[in-house]
Amino acid sequence: MEEEQEEIVSGYCRAWNQSRTVVCEYRESREGILLVTDCDYPNCVHSGSCEVIKKVRQDV
To answer: What is the DSSP letter of 49?
Structure first.
């Protein structure tokens, strides 16, 4: 059974040009599917190079 997890990550946000803390909820699976964030990811223009989301994906 897949269980949803919550991760809180801090890092530099290029869109806001400042440090941000982002809450991410994801389902634990082989893919580590990211479900919800409290920022504009994946619609952000910087989503391809987002350091905050990169940290989340490394921790999963």
So the answer is: G
